[in-house]
Amino acid sequence: MDKEIKRQLEIIKKGVVDLLPEDEFIEKLKNSLKNNKPLRVKQGFDPTAPDIHLGHTVGLRKLRQFQDLGHQVVLIIGDYTGLVGDPSGRSATRPQLTYEQLMENSESYQKQFFKIVDKEKTEVHFNGEWFDKMGLKDIMHLSSKFTIARILERDDFEKRYKAGLPIAMHEFFYPLMQAYDSVMIKADIEIGATEQTFNLVAGRHIQEAYGQKPQCILTLPILVGVDGVKRMSKSLGNYIGVDESPKEIFGKVMSIPDNLILSYYELVTDVTGEELKTIKEKLETPELNPMDLKKELGVQLVTIYHNKDKALEAREEFERVFSDRGIPDDMPELSMAEIGETIWVVKLLADTKMVNSRGEARRLIKAGGLYIDNERMSDDSRELNLKEGLLFKVGKRKFFRIIK
């Protein structure tokens, strides 16, 4: 195998679950290098939330690797597929967002994309560019290229069908729409998480139906959230956002279970294969404190999304606050003039956005996660008499103080 092909293949396959069909991909890569014609590498994102987290960056980092190897990255922002909602891995129909919500989210998405992907080397398309122009005749033509039997092969549809759970007709169009995106941008390869495999394979089928050479597919592992159980998701609250503060990013990294350390290094940092091997060996050493590796991981991630100075500051504050049981120098101050002198503790936490809802406040308090002046509060029905200087610790990392 040619030396350059072997080098690129090694980089591209790092952290990948499957590259299919690999022999087709190698042939595409050979032709790309021979003819000095970059591969067109596609990934699509539906802007169903305003922020991206480390789970999204697994694919974005792979796109950046392709860019660094000289290939053309094509980002598809699903303003139309977002209206349908991707049913992959879901046990119920996804709630539909308005077009205005999707477009507002897409602006935030793009700003965060380009913290990782080189904007100057990226082609960006909204799939409304072609779907908005399609008439019923075009839609019927597209839908004729796929069978209901094939659609029902999808694991999530099959389970819902057998369980008698509703499947809306518009959900059947999602894999066809994602596949048609590949036709319109002439994708050579499409990237997605393992749960996207059906959609990615559908892209191959639809490209062939429209007379194109089928794309190869590259699947990536799903990043487990900081809870150590479920995939990283903002709705589950187990995420690390790329736009969060250095203190939040570092603190959340410190909370990940030890068994996730290696996968986080592999999937969301720039460590080399040799460095990853060293980290694995360290984790197998009984004398090692895994917290040391988590601190190094936290520094790397804050450096990527902020800078090295902010990363070192975040580490220093974490060590002082949590290792030495101190309190942070910089914390929110809440005025009694605004919130009153007496308030229900649950309302206080929710109104001040220390938690996302009153329900979350109740759960936090019952779990022993609220301290007031270093004393644990366990009564979620208590009315508080506020006074100047009162110190609150909410969960593991949030503090605030009452002022007049």
3D structure, described in words:
There is one protein chain. By secondary structure, this protein is of the alpha/beta class. It has 3 domains: 3-220, HUPs (Rossmann fold, 3-Layer(aba) Sandwich); 246-323, Orthogonal Bundle (Tyrosyl-Transfer RNA Synthetase), CATH 1.10.240.10; 333-403, Structural Genomics Hypothetical 15.5 Kd Protein In mrcA-pckA Intergenic Region, Chain A, CATH 3.10.290. The chain has 19 helices and 13 strands. It has helices at 3-13, 22-34, 54-68, 81-84, 99-113, 128-131, 136-143, 148-151, 155-162, 169-185, 197-209, 246-254, 261-268, 273-283, 290-305, 308-323, 336-339, 345-351, 358-366; strands spanning 18-20, 40-45, 72-77, 122-126, 189-193, 216-220, 333-335, 342-344, 370-372, 375-377, 383-385, 391-394, 398-403. It has a 6-stranded mixed beta sheet, sandwiched between helices. A 5-stranded mixed beta sheet has the order 7-13-12-9-10. Strands 8-11 form a two-stranded antiparallel ribbon. Helix 12 packs antiparallel against helix 15 (290-305) and helix 18 crosses helix 19 (358-366).
Radius of gyration: 24 Å
Shape: globular
Give the class from helix and strand content and strand pairing: alpha/beta
> Regarding CATH, which class of the largest domain?
Alpha Beta
Query: What is the CATH topology descriptor of the largest domain?
Result: Rossmann fold
Q: Got a strand count?
A: 13
What topology emerges from the helices and strands here?
Layout: H1 3-13, E1 18-20, H2 22-34, E2 40-45, H3 54-68, E3 72-77, H4 81-84, H5 99-113, E4 122-126, H6 128-131, H7 136-143, H8 148-151, H9 155-162, H10 169-185, E5 189-193, H11 197-209, E6 216-220, H12 246-254, H13 261-268, H14 273-283, H15 290-305, H16 308-323, E7 333-335, H17 336-339, E8 342-344, H18 345-351, H19 358-366, E9 370-372, E10 375-377, E11 383-385, E12 391-394, E13 398-403
Parallel strand pairs: 2-3, 2-5, 3-4, 5-6, 7-13
Antiparallel strand pairs: 1-6, 8-11, 9-10, 9-12, 12-13
Helix pairs in contact: 10-11, 12-15, 12-16, 13-15, 15-16, 18-19
